Each structure stands twice: as structure tokens, then as C-alpha cells.
Amino acid sequence: MRYFTLKELTRSATAQRLGIYNTPPASAVKALNELVDNVLDPLREAWGGPIRVNSGYRCPALNKAVGGTPGSQHLRGEAADITVGTPSANRRLLALIKRLDLPVDQCIDEKGCRWIHVSHRAGRNRRQYMKF
User: Fold this and answer.
1) Cβ partners under 8 Å of residue 57, min gap 6
2) N or C: which end of the chain has fewer CB within 10 A?
3) Kindly report the CA angle at 51 between 97 and 4, in degrees rounded to 5?
4) CATH number for the 6-131 domain, one of 3.20.20.80, 3.40.630.30, 3.30.1380.10, 3.30.43.10?
5) Do 51 and 93 touch, CB atoms closer than 8 A?
6) pLDDT in tens, 32-81
7) Total-model pTM
8) Separation in Å, CA 87 to CA 59, 62, 82, 83, 95
9) Closest residue by Cα to residue 53 from 62, 64, 43
10) How far apart are CA 6 and CA 4, in angstroms?
11) What are the domain boundaries of the chain?
């Protein structure tokens, strides 16, 4: 991890507010490291500026509290929702992800690029690009 920390990948205002213990197990920490090493750090290097993580790892209670899907990759530490500040900047970030051909499992333009969901699964990425 060069540009990101475990703390920012597990930080959650919702967890703090609700008193939810959002510390990942070792398997999720390993997956978060793979996500950072293979997707987030190379993206940050190419972007040349800060990328903020809105949501990374979520324990089951936090995932439920935020309305995440039961099979969310956030539960396994395989996903992060990221932003560089504005929908227009996020669109440029999304184009960069595609241009770099990063090993994403899923890359999702969420709500008109209010944020981008990126995920990575070690050795088995579908490279799906979607809009929600």
C-alpha cells in the first residue's frame, strides 16, 4: 500500500455513529491489500492526485446498515467506492481506469458518477463495466 491505508479502507461514519465494530478479518485485509496493489495504487499513480475512499471493507452489520447487497464484495474486502470530488472528474477517472486496463472484477458508475465502485478478486476478474 503506497497511497492508501487500511484505516481509510475500513473507516465508516455510519459504523461510528451506530457503534459497529468494523475491523476486517485477516482474509479481508489480504483482499484489501490486493485491491490496493492491483487497482487503487496504480490508478492513483496515473491520476496524479488524491483519490478518496467513500466505502471499503464492510462487516455484515455495517453492510446491512448501509443497505448493501448480501453478497457485496465489500464484505470480503474486495471492493471500494471511490471519488475524486465531482461527477465530471469521476467520469475522467472512470475513463482512466478503462484506458489503463486495470484488473478490475467490476467497475461501476454509481448514480451518474457520484462515485465509482471498483473491485478486484485475486486471479479471477470478470472486467465488467456497468452503470447504476
Assistant:
1) 9, 10, 22, 24, 28, 32, 74, 75, 77
2) C
3) 105
4) 3.30.1380.10
5) yes
6) 999 999 999 999 999 999 999 999 999 999 999 999 999 999 999 999 99
7) 0.95
8) 28, 26, 11, 8, 12
9) 43
10) 7
11) 6-131
Grid cell, residue 28, equals: 479481508
Are 110 and 117 a contacting pair, CB within 8 Å?
yes
Rounded CA gap, 61 and 45, in Å? 33
Instruction: Of 50-54, 99-103, 119-123, give the lowest mean pLDDT range.
Output: 119-123
pLDDT band at 129 (very low <50, low <70, confident <90, very high): very high
* Interatomic CA distance for residues 5 and 3, integer angstroms: 7
